[in-house]
Structure formats: C-alpha cells, structure tokens
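The authors assume throughout that readers already know how a fold can be written as discrete tokens. A single example would do more here than another paragraph of explanation. An entry of this sort, consisting of the sequence and the corresponding backbone structure tokens, reads as follows:
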Amino acid sequence: MSKIHSTAVIEKSAKIGSDVTIGPNCFIDEDAEIGDGCILDANVIIGKGVKAGKMNVFYPNCVIGRNPQMLGARPDTKCGGLEIGNDNMIREFVTIHPSIYHDTSTTVGNNNLIMVSAHIGHDCIVEDKVVLSNNTQISGHCKIETGAWLSGTVQIHQFTTVGKWSYAAAFSGLNHDVPPFVIVSGHYPPEVRGVNERGLNRAGLNEQQQAAIMEAYKILFRTKTPLLKNVQALIEKPGIDENVRVMCQSILNSNKHRFGRFLEASRRKE
C-alpha cells in the first residue's frame, strides 16, 4: 500500500504504482507515472508526462521534468518527454529537463547516483551505473555512457559524449568527447591523464582485458605520433580486443566533427 502525505498534490491523470511513498508538499503533474516502490521525500516536483520506473528515490527539493531552460519557454510551452529507469538515487536540488522536441525524450537509465544540485539538460541520454557528483552540470543533447563517473562541479558542453567507465576530475570543463575507460581533467580542452583502473574493475573486466586497454592507452596517448595515426595502427591489428576497438571507434567518431563532438552531426535544424 502506498503512503501519501496529506499535503501532497497529485493530478488525477497521474499514475502511482504500489508501495510508493510520497512525502509532504510533493507535486505530481498531469499524466506522470511513478513506478512501484518509489520514494518521494518532501517538496519533490514531478512534471507533466514524466515516466519513472521502479524503486527510484527522489530526495527533497528535486525538480524533475519541468520545462527546459531556453529563450522564450514558458510553463505552458509544449515539450517532449522524460523517461527514468529503475533504482536511481536522485539527491537534493537535482534538476532534470525533458526534451525540447515533442516527439523525443530525455532518458535516464538504471542504478545511477545523481548527487546534490546536479543538472541534466534536455535531450540528454544518461545510461546505467553513472555517478554525477555534486554540482555537475550537463548541457542539452549530451550522452553519458554506462559507468562514467563525473566528479564535483564538472561542466559539460552541449552534444558531448562521455565514454563508458571513464572518469572526469573535479572542475573539469568538457567541450569535446571523452573516450571510454580514461581519466580526464582540465578544461578547454580537457586532457587525458591516464586509465580509469577503478572503472575497469567496476566494469568487471578481467586481467587480460584490462591489460589490453592499458597497452592501447600507451600507444594512443603516450607516443609522439599523431593520435589518428595511432588509432589506425591499432584498428588494423589482428585480434584487437573489443574494448580497445570501442576506444578507437570513439576517437574516430569524435574526429568527424571539427569541435570533437560526434553528436553535433545529429543536431536538428528545427
């Protein structure tokens, strides 16, 4: 049985699952869906049409699914969707915006930890097992791949991809794509500093896979030959490790755009 505080306001068209806890002064807007076992602490706002899966925890004062921050947008401006998976921990003052397009959605996957005052902009894709630390700010149209860990106050430019199981150090400003499995820090541009060994362990990679990534990192980023030439040499090697291939493909994709942001190619003209 769900527990709903007497001061909570829930629109009639909203759908509430079983065993949901909704605390004081929460507001759930029209056509929103809250899955089984979710917990909404005090003062949580869930916007129109937001779809949240099971066992998510929303801490006080987070605002989920209100309209994006864009010029001319009003509370009644029609926007797209926001879909959230299962088992996410969404801490205090987090904001997540829906898509600016009526036919698409911002998506957040499963088992993510989104810390205090983090922001996920419109039309982003956040996959699974991602950690967004305090005050991390993700602009619109970004993709944060599985297992990425962004430390405190990381700022991310629109259309940037952060590769799986990578790590961005605190105060980094990411204005181009980050390859999988690496550590980056700094800003404009950030620099690759090493391999995210903790991320490799979190990903469950075995010793052979980890050794292949370490060797690839040395070839790609610690030789004096041009990066793209190093990538091509690795890709042409017989029996290349699949994770190394993913690293190389990420770099090739990024270099298809002059600013190093592969997703810029998908920018809609409307």
